[in-house]
Design brief:
The chain is an alpha/beta fold and about 110 residues long. The chain has six helices and five strands, in the order E-H-E-H-E-H-H-E-H-E-H. The chain has a single domain, classed as Oxidized Rhodanese, domain 1 (3-Layer(aba) Sandwich).
Length: about 110
Amino acid sequence: MNHISVQELAQRLSSNDASIQLVDVREPQELEIASIEGFVNLPLSQFAEWGDQVPNLFNPQAETLVLCHHGIRSAQMCQWLIAQGFTNVQNISGGIDAYSVLVDHSIPQY
C-alpha cells in the first residue's frame, strides 16, 4: 500500500485535479467536527450499506486517496480497495489530525 503525506495531499487538492478520487472513512459525527471539502464519506461502520456500491461509485484505475482521523481506518480501507482490484490507492498518513496540525490550522482537532 502506498502512502501520501498531508503536505502532498494539500498540493494535490490545490491543483484541482478532477481525476483524483477522495474517500473519507470517518463517522458522520467526526465529519461534523472536521472535514476537507471534496471527500466522499463512506463510514467504515456502515460498510454493509455501501460495500457493494464501491465499483459503481469509483473507478478502480483512478488514483484514490483515503482519509481517516489518524491513518489506521484508512489503511484498512486501502487494503480492502486493493483486494477489490483498485490499482492506485494511497493512504493519507496521519489523517485529518496531521492535516489540521501541519497544513490547515482552521480545521479543528479532536
